[in-house]
Write a structure and sequence with these properties.
This protein is about 30% helix and about 25% strand. The chain is α/β, with parallel strands linked by helices. It folds into 2 domains: about 10-220, Alanine racemase (TIM Barrel, Alpha-Beta Barrel), CATH 3.20.20; about 235-354, Lyase, Ornithine Decarboxylase, Chain A, domain 1 (Beta Barrel), CATH 2.40.37. The strands form 3 sheets. Strands 2, 3, 4, 5, 6, 7, 8, 9 and 10 form a 9-stranded parallel sheet that branches. Strands 11-14-17-16-15-18 form a 6-stranded antiparallel beta barrel. The protein has a two-stranded antiparallel sheet with strand order 12-13. β15 and β16 (about 295-300) form a beta hairpin. The longest helix is centred in the first third of the chain and has 15 residues, at about 10-25. The radius of gyration is 23 Å and the shape is elongated. The structure holds pyridoxal-5'-phosphate.
Length: about 350
């Protein structure tokens, strides 16, 4: 069922952003991270567009990879959480997926697995984030165990940064040093860098890089907009004006009456709300573009509507006029900041709703 809001996905911008990844990552192989419905952009459309342009795709879980295979995607697929049980491991073999092994029980399951097929897999090391990954002190042991398995045709290694978006975080160097001291002397291909590391920590670019956010044209840094890196937004979220109200000074607007007109005001109602993935916590003043001009959101975000103060408009705004909530002329990062969240969440939520 269609709602009034509309997502526009610019696949040329995706291609352009991939060229920005290449510029930073030199000759590294590229794993495009397309989990969570490609950060809301539509996993299948993005996978089809990137097939043949990148070296692998990455998803979070086996079911996402299964969906891609069912729909004809035959690219290499890395499963970032690996398999959660035996039947998912079976699927990794059947569908030729590349699971990430990050826990000792996964390695045990792989050791016991009876299959005449082989798969490529990744060993993930916990270099300091303490989310997924085997402890650094056990890394050598697990590496040797996996290298001995006939079922493993190729082993690669990876780790993930906790604070790559903070260029000066001490932990970045500590994680890099921990990973390098494990990897020294090994000939296994390695991967460390996500978008923030690709853009700001060149020493972390190994054989493979794993960009997500930057591919979608969004900056991973709170203090640097995407344009600084030449990234172009892939997603534009649009709707239109459905009502315009003339309100005298002192009148309150919306649920909870949490914003009142300080002067005689003109308030536009736009057909988009948290039911469409627009953030409910967007604060008064969050920018909204109507006919290409910025206006402040006022009052509480409802399920299907927001209210925008257009009193200051020089040009007439009419019912049906186009509204852009984020996209090419309005950075999703700015909307995220006004909503005390991050661009990743806004993109993903929109993709779930539309
Ligand atoms: C293991 C791993 N690698 C790479 C990425 C991509 O990160 P980003 O979107 O910040 O580039 C993610 C995303 O969460 C991830 O979990």
């Amino acid at each position: 069922m269609k709602r009034s809001s509309r997502l526009e996905i610019n696949l040329d911008a995706l291609t352009h952003n991939l060229s920005v990844v290449r510029k930073h990552a030199n000759d590294a192989n590229i794993i495009a991270v397309i989990k969570a419905n490609a950060y809301g952009h539509g996993m299948l459309a993005v996978a089809r567009h990137l097939a043949g342009k990148v070296d692998a795709l990455a998803v979070a879980c086996v079911s996402e990879a299964h969906y891609l295979r069912d729909n004809g995607i035959d690219s290499a697929i890395v499963v970032l959480q690996g398999f959660h049980n035996l039947s998912q491991l079976d699927l990794c073999f059947q569908l030729d997926l590349q699971p990430v092994c990050h826990q000792s029980w996964q390695i045990e399951l792989l050791k016991q697995h009876q299959s005449d097929k082989q798969l490529s897999c990744w060993l993930k090391l916990d270099s300091g984030m303490h989310r997924l990954g085997v402890p650094m002190q056990d890394a050598q042991l697990y590496t040797e165990q996996l290298l001995k398995l006939a079922a493993v045709k190729k082993l690669r290694v990876m780790t993930h940064f906790a604070s790559a978006d903070e260029e000066n975080a001490l932990l970045n160097q500590q994680q890099l040093d921990a990973f390098n001291s494990y990897h020294a002397g090994l000939t296994l291909e390695a991967s460390m860098a996500n978008s923030a590391a690709i853009l700001s920590l060149p020493d972390t670019i190994k054989d493979w890089v794993r960009p997500g956010l930057m591919l979608y044209g969004v900056s991973p840094f709170a203090d640097k907009p995407a344009s600084v890196f030449g990234l172009k937004p892939v997603m534009t979220l649009k709707s239109y004006v459905v009502a315009i109200n003339q309100l005298p000074a002192g009148q309150a607007v919306g649920y909870g009456s949490c914003w009142s007109c300080s002067r005689d005001s003109q308030v536009a109602v736009v057909a988009i709300g948290y039911g469409d993935g627009y953030p409910r916590h967007a604060s008064n003043g969050t920018p909204v573009l109507i006919n290409g001009k910025r206006y402040p959101l006022v009052g509480r975000v409802s399920m299907d509507m927001i209210t925008v103060d257009i009193t200051a408009t020089g040009a007439a705004i009419e019912i049906g006029d186009e509204v852009i909530l984020w996209g090419e002329e309005l950075d999703v990062g700015e909307v995220a900041e006004c909503s005390t969240t991050i661009a990743y969440e806004l993109l993903c939520n929109t993709g779930r709703a539309n």
